[in-house]
Amino acid sequence: MATSAVSSTSTSASSTAAKTATSSAANIAAANRAAAQKLLTSLNAGSGVDVASLAQNLVDAESVPQKNAINAKITKNEARISGYAAVSFVASELNNAFTALKDQNSFSSLAATNTQPNAFSVTTTASAVAGSHDIEVLQLAKSQRTISAGFASASASVNGGNPMSLTLTVGGVAKPAINLAEGKDTPQNIVDAINLAKTGVTATLVNTGDTSGPAFQIVLTGPKGAAGAFSLSSSYTQVGGAVSSTPNAGSSGLSFPANTANQVATDAMVKVDGITIKRSSNTLTDVLAGVTIDLKAPTSATEGAANLSLVRDTTALKEKFKTLVTTYNDAASMLNVVSDPKSTVDTYGATLVGDSTTRSVKSLMRNLVQGESNTPGTKITAMWQMGLSIDRSGVMTLDEAKLDAALTDNFDDVVKTMTGNTNGLSAYSVQPAGFAGEAMRKLSKLIGPNGPLLSNSQNAETQNTKYQADLSKLETRMTTLLARYNKQFASMESIVGSVNSQKTSLKSSFDGMMSVYTNK
After folding, report:
1. Contacts from 480-488 at CB under 8 Å and sequence distance 24+?
2. Which helix (H) or strand (E) holds 407?
3. Which of 89, 297, 326, 358 has the most CB atoms in a 10 Å sphere around its CB?
């Protein structure tokens, strides 16, 4: 990364600015002395003076030190902004590394091998246990599906425009009546009313495209499982106001041929290690601890039961710990680069020398991985017991043999110590969440919109805006001063010219008088 690239020729911004300011001040002072000497010589000799250059030198003598001071502050702030950006980046990378280890599900390291993947699929969590199981899918859970007789259109009247009422009985329990008002007795009205009632039975209006007869049919689908079996009865308000089980004359009514189900509601039946299990869903989460089994089809009759093998594979998990070590050391290295006054690293070197935020970030990082977890395990309570340690210089190392032993012998402890056995906790949660969860919270606050890194960077940008305004004000003031000097020196030049003219005239008169007396 950038922290490893060292430039032997680069110098800090502050020393460069100081040397530039000293050199400019010395050059201006020398120019002013030369201009003053030129003025004196000119007055004595009677020659002209470069008053424009003299005025500019006087203005520069006053403005350049101030400009240099302001520009030095701007340069320092720009360096600070670069330094904060670098620290924020490495802290964000470290946060990502901890986030990859903060959830219990992040430790789902069991590899599942299934001899009949067409019959079911398997997903595991960190609480799953390695082992081998025989699974036989006998039957899938299905929903009752019942199809009505046909209708001419979606807007055809079912009861001659008169009110009607529907009653659904689901799992042997009668649901509240579904009443359709006058003029609301079309197939589409019936579908909408059933879905709005939320009884567990859903309705769909299907256009079969059959040109030989009524093409629209209502399909009712119940909840999955045997307990989702349902029946529907209809009652119709007659023209005279009486209620009947038959629709008004000339109306088709709502009927289901023989009121039989086109698909019968059934439970899923699975035999796991010789034990028959019945469930109303095809997603089984409580059969094997930490394992979700999604049923797809009955297992092959010729092959018999499928074999499910769960084997612990910590390869991917170890890579996450290695990434944590790498990003931690990158962050520590960058903090050293920005805070070292002797650093010669381009762009970021010595940009935050003496900065208190840098010191606090160093302290925060060390505290993230030291001490005991707030959710300790029985035998594993600290990171050093998992092979993670920090030397005196702040470099983190990983003892892979010790990590392997912890994952093999005390896997549950490792998970609890790192995650608190939690999943999906946000940076704002206060629930104990282990080393990784707590680190994610603290680093998220550090690099967040209200964190010190962004706040300090924004403050530096605000100061630079003010300094730029100060430069503009100084430029305006120096422009006015230069105009005043030019005006004063022009007046002086006029006076000196007049004196020189008088001197020449007097000298000529004296020379004439002397020639009279000396006959020369």
Report:
1. 481/59, 481/62, 482/55, 482/56, 482/59, 485/54, 485/55, 485/58, 485/59, 486/51, 486/52, 486/55
2. helix 400-409
3. 358
Between CA 510 and CA 504 the distance in angstroms is: 10
Output phi, psi for 178, to 5 deg: -105, 110
Q: Which residues pair with 132 in a beta bridge?
A: 309
Average pLDDT over residues 329-348: 93
Q: What is the pTM of this model?
A: 0.67
Are 10 and 22 within 8 A, CB to CB? no
With tokens 């010589």, the residue in question is 41
Look at phi and psi of residue 197 and say left if phi exceeds 0, alpha if psi is from -120 to 50, else beta. alpha
CB 87 within 8 A of CB 447: no
Residue of 499, 57, 100 whose CA lies nearest to 328: 100
pLDDT in tens, 214-240: 999 999 999 999 999 999 999 999 988
Pull the structure tokens for residue 341: 């006054």
Q: Hunting for tokens 């762009």 — which residue is that?
A: 347
Q: What is the DSSP letter of 397?
A: E
Please give the pLDDT value at position 234. 94
Q: Are strands 131-139 and 268-272 parallel, antiparallel or unpaired?
A: antiparallel
- The Cα–Cα gap between 226 and 261 comes to 13
pLDDT tens digits for range 358-407: 999 999 999 999 999 999 999 999 999 999 999 988 999 999 999 999 99
At residue 506, the pLDDT reads 74
Other C-beta atoms closer than 10 Å to the C-beta of 410 total 18
Q: Which of 386, 425, 431, 501 is nearest to 105 (CA)?
A: 425
Among residues 421, 436, 373, the alpha carbon closest in space to that of 127 is found at 421
Q: Of 33 and 16, which is predicted with more confidence?
A: 33
DSSP 424-448: S--TT--S--HHHHHHHHHHHHHHS
From CA 74, how far away is CA 68, in angstroms rounded? 10
For 280-316, b where at least 16 C-beta lie within 10 A, e where not — what string? bebebeebbebbbbebeebbeeeeebbebebeeebee
> Is residue 451 classed exposed, middle or buried when 0-12, 13-18 and 19+ CB atoms within 10 A define those classes?
middle
Distance CA 347, CA 264 (A): 72
Long-range contacts of 495-501, Cβ-Cβ distance < 8 Å, separation of 24 or more = 496/42, 496/43, 496/49, 500/46
What's the rounded Cα separation, in Å, for the pair 223 and 230?
9
> What domains can you pick out in the chain, each with its CATH number?
9-104+316-453 (no CATH), 110-141+267-312 (no CATH), 143-259 (2.60.40)
User: Which of 203, 167, 209 is closest to 188 using CA atoms?
Assistant: 203
What CA–CA distance (Å, rounded) separates 239 from 157?
Answer: 14
Q: What is the CA radius of gyration of the chain?
A: 45
Contact 190, 203 (CB under 8 A): yes
Contacts 24+ apart (CB under 8 A), 457-460: 457/80, 457/81, 457/84, 457/85, 457/88, 460/77, 460/78, 460/80, 460/81, 460/84
